[in-house]
Design brief:
single chain, alpha+beta, five-stranded mixed beta sheet, two-stranded antiparallel sheet
């Protein structure tokens, strides 16, 4: 058993040895493979190292490209923000236009209502006129009737006159008969005297004739009484006719007076209607003017609100853009890219100045433009401003005619006076592109300081000079060709006015302009608005 066990152990040992040899060979082959793989990995590492070097070079190039792209992206963002601002501005203008359109629609409806009321009033007036015309027709008919009555009375008067004439003829006839009778009596008396001898014979006949004469005399007396009564009746009728004629004349006079009054009333009514129409037209014009003024006030108010809000909203992103550009300027090494950043920073500076001006306009309209007073030398301030502007502008030479005796001290807001000087000099450069010089002059007295800026450019027409200090006003001839909002002189004028000073201009077309402002060195009561 021991031998068997020893041989088994030997077999097992050989088998284990063979297994170990196989394992060694396997390990050797694996080692060879591992060495080959290691050599391959070394080659791969060297290849990767070279690729990494190439990748680093490419990465550096990409970093440069990314920085370039970043600068382009910044410029694109600036442009996009500007476009967004323009879109917001357009949107605000559209809102204002919609408000104006709504107001116009309301005005049209109001005008239509007023027109309907005016038409109703005109209908009432026409009815009144028709009523007056009907009354006039009735009055004319009454006048015609009265005229007919007058004619009838006149006809009756003619008949009465004819009857009176006939009665007068009868009276004359009776008087003639009486005369004949008297003549006959005379003849008879003569005959009686002649026939005295025949008296006795003729007594009977004479008695009879006397009776007849008495009878005729009685009849004549009766006829005379009747004639007298008829004359009295005729006189009475004539008096009544005269009274009727006088009454008719009075009535005609009253009618003519009424007709004249009616004509005058109609004329007065026509005049009043014309006056009403004139007043209505004046009222319509006044309402239009008032509505236009209210609309202008409302639009200016909304414009001021929009300017204030837009300026505040633009200030923050503009500050961020300025910071980013300054950071890029410090980090970039490429001079060409730096030049773009410098140009972008200049444009941002211009935009920042524009926003500051808009904010100043909003503060001026609200009466909240702050002033910080201190004592400073105007001559030194003018020199500092000239140096700053001269560094940025190479087309004009700024000539100083400053104070002969320095310092010239004033008690004012130094920053605001500097703002006025910069604005006047910038305008002088902008509007005198064909000239090459600007003259700055400073003079003073014991109480005041006068600063003048003279250019040799386009000049300003006389009829437009009183308006150039108004908000958003620009000279018509140059507005389409030179950029600007027309608020610089408006702000400058307000600043000088609040210093109790005067800003003025003297200009000739084609010869240039001189802007001057005069401010007190110190107010007597030592107070400023």
């Amino acid at each position: 058993m021991d031998n068997i066990n020893g041989s088994d152990k030997l077999i097992i040992a050989y088998q284990e040895l063979a297994f170990q040899s196989a394992e060694r060979e396997k390990r050797a082959s694996e080692l060879v493979i591992a060495n080959i793989e290691r050599d391959f990995q070394i080659v791969e590492k060297e290849k990767r190292a070279s690729e990494l070097i190439i990748a680093n070079i490419e990465r550096d190039f990409e970093i440069v490209e990314k920085e370039k792209r970043a600068a382009e992206l910044v410029l694109a963002n600036i442009e996009r923000d500007f476009q967004s601002t323009e879109r917001d501005k357009r949107a605000a203008e559209l809102v204002i236009a919609n408000i104006e359109r709504t107001f116009q629609i309301e005005e049209k409806e109001k005008r239509a209502a007023e027109l309907m009321i005016a038409n109703e009033e005109l209908v009432v007036q026409n009815k009144e006129k028709e009523k007056r015309a009907a009354e006039l027709i009735v009055a004319n008919k009454e006048l015609a009737f009265q005229n007919k009555e007058k004619e009838k009375r006149a006809a009756e008067l003619l008949i009465a006159n004819k009857e009176l004439a006939f009665q007068n003829k009868e009276k004359e006839k009776r008087a003639a008969e009486l005369l004949i009778a008297n003549n006959e009596l005379v003849i008879q008396n003569l005959l009686k005297e002649k026939r005295a001898a025949e008296l006795i014979i003729a007594n009977k006949e004479l008695a009879f004739q006397n009776k007849e004469k008495e009878k005729r005399a009685a009849e004549l007396l009766i006829a005379n009484k009747e004639l007298a009564f008829q004359n009295i009746e005729k006189e009475k009728r004539a008096a009544e006719l005269l009274i009727a004629n006088e009454e008719l004349v009075i009535q005609n006079t009253l009618k003519e007076k009424r007709a004249a009054e009616l004509v005058i009333a109609n004329k007065e009514l026509i005049f009043q209607n014309r006056e009403k129409e004139k007043r209505a037209a004046e009222l319509i014009i006044a309402n239009k003017e008032l509505a236009s003024q209210n609309l202008e006030i409302e639009l200016n108010k909304k414009k001021d609100e929009f300017i204030g809000v837009a300026s505040h909203e633009l200030k923050t992103p503009l500050t961020s853009i300025n910071a980013y550009l300054q950071f890029l300027q410090r980090s970039l090494t490429n001079d060409k890219n730096k030049l773009f950043i410098i140009k972008a920073l200049r444009q941002v500076g211009k935009l920042s100045g524009l926003i500051s001006d808009l904010l100043d306009v909003s503060k001026i309209e609200q009466g909240k433009l702050p002033l910080n007073f201190s004592t400073f030398d105007v001559c030194d301030l003018a020199k500092e401003v000239i140096e700053i502007i001269q560094l940025g502008d190479i087309t004009h030479k700024i000539i100083e005619n400053t104070c002969e005796v320095s310092p010239v001290l004033v008690y004012a807001d130094k920053q605001r006076i500097e703002q006025v000087l910069i604005n006047l000099i910038s305008n002088a450069i902008k509007y005198s592109s064909t000239a090459d010089r600007i003259i700055i002059s400073i003079s003073h007295t014991d109480t005041d300081v006068v600063v003048s800026v003279q250019d040799f450019g386009l000049g300003i027409p006389d009829d437009q000079q009183p308006h150039i200090f108004s908000r958003f006003y620009r000279v018509k001839e140059v507005a389409p060709h030179i950029s600007g909002l027309g608020i610089g002189l408006y702000i400058s004028d307000d600043i000088i006015s609040r210093h109790r000073g005067i800003l003025g201009v003297e200009s000739s077309l084609g010869k240039g302009s001189t802007f001057s402002f005069k401010i007190p060195k110190r107010l007597v009561d030592n107070s400023f608005d």
